[in-house]
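hiii, so i know i said id send this last week but things got crazy w the move. better late than never?? heres the sequnce for the chain we talked about at the cafe, plus the structure i predicted for it. fair warning i was half asleep when i ran it
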Amino acid sequence: MHIHWFPGHMAKAQRMIREQLGLIDVVIELLDARIPASSANPVITELIGAKPRVIALNKSDLAETAQTTEWLNHFRSMGFTTVTLDASSGKGTKELVSKVEQEASEKIAKLTAKGIKARAVRAMILGIPNVGKSSLINRLLGTATAKTGDKPGVTRGQQWLKVGKNLELLDTPGVLWPKMDDQEVAFRLAVTGAIKDDIYDMEKVISSLVALLKENYSDRLCERYKLQQEDLPEDAAELLALIGAKRGCLRSGGIVDYEKVRRIILTDFRSGKLGKFTLDIPYNNQ
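okay and structure toks below
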């Protein structure tokens, strides 16, 4: 299951970020709360350098609460300001704005002390594709002015956006790193939607996901797809066939439509219908 994706616009995005960082007071790094480590792009860390940063764990409604708390503690122990978000509902956005303004307060105070007129805080939102940047911006603005979609790579250009009187946001395209040597990380990015579904082997990825669910969350599989624990097969393909039969994903002659079953399981996983998941173990639990 080798997954690599670094289209040309990713390299362009990096150049754009470098060019604009000098204008920025605070960077908002948006991470997926289900995969806080896997969605932390080392390229972004390199680009940011010593710039003040607020780490926001988005999609916290889809992650396990106790695990999210441990991840927050981990980042705070490293000296980062953190916040949890559910950009789709707006939960946590007010706290995010407050913390961004706090991070920039020292710089703004220095500018004022030099006789420079007080201005709005300038922040840049960075994160991997499909982590929820556009949804967050829409919530902050109170209107769907930033193009959004359920596929990674929807946002292409840059735009300055005014949030209230004291904050200006620079939106940027999602950035993935050039090479994914860790295929476990690649798997987590794939199943959570950070990588386009049409560039990886769906069969292998969903087989791995089903195996993970059976090993650690078999009760959820049984509840969602009306299965019995004692009937769960060991083989992932057989389990897919069982779920397909239960959901009526059959072609003529009673043949299981595996592609349809895979899509159903992936959609249920991503939408939270199979429950909350945190695929990255907090470092202090490893």
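btw The first strand starts at residue 26 and ends at 32. thought thatd interest u
miss u guys!!
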